[in-house]
Amino acid sequence: MTFEPVLPDPIACPFCPIKDREILAEHPLAAAITDSFPLTQGHTLIVPRRHVASFFELTTNERLVMLGLLDQAKATLDAKYSPNGFNIGVNDGTAAGQTVMHVHIHLIPRYKGDADDPRGGVRWIFPRKAEYWNARS
Questions:
Q1: How far apart are alpha carbons 46 and 48 in whole angstroms?
Q2: Is residue 9 situated within a structural domain?
Q3: The one catalytic residue among 27, 43, 104, 106
Q4: SS3 breakdown of the chain: % helix, strand, coil, rounded to 5?
Q5: Mean pLDDT, 10 residues at a time, over the chain (137 residues)?
Q6: What is the CATH number of the domain that holds 29?
Q7: pTM, two decimal places
Q8: Cβ–Cβ < 8 Å for 24, 76
Q9: pLDDT score, position 82
Q10: Is 104 a catalytic residue?
Q11: Disulfide engineering: 87 pairs with which of 3, 32, 69, 108, CB 3.0-4.6 Å?
């Protein structure tokens, strides 16, 4: 099964411009917005205002601003929802599962009981390798 990346150019990009979403925090270079398809309550995306596909194509200033917005969004989510933890992630490139070709950082609040066994976190992209604590030497 193959998939096509969604909306590779700024004209059709869902993040260009950032609008029609709840903005949790913003800066002239980036914004923290609610995810349209949230995995958990409060799932947030940190998105640069400039259309760029890869995290590695961001300028140093864009990266710093996005990390600052990540902190601001976390504080907002802590106050609003009181999550028990967070997953933070970036899918960079189609091989990594990126489907919207505009870089974005996922800030996913986690809550006790939202998964039967949350150990391994993002390692579950490879289920056979996720349970490293059961691996034999």
A1: 7
A2: no
A3: 104
A4: 30, 20, 50
A5: 49 80 92 94 97 97 98 98 97 94 97 90 76 64
A6: 3.30.428.10
A7: 0.86
A8: yes
A9: 98
A10: yes
A11: 108
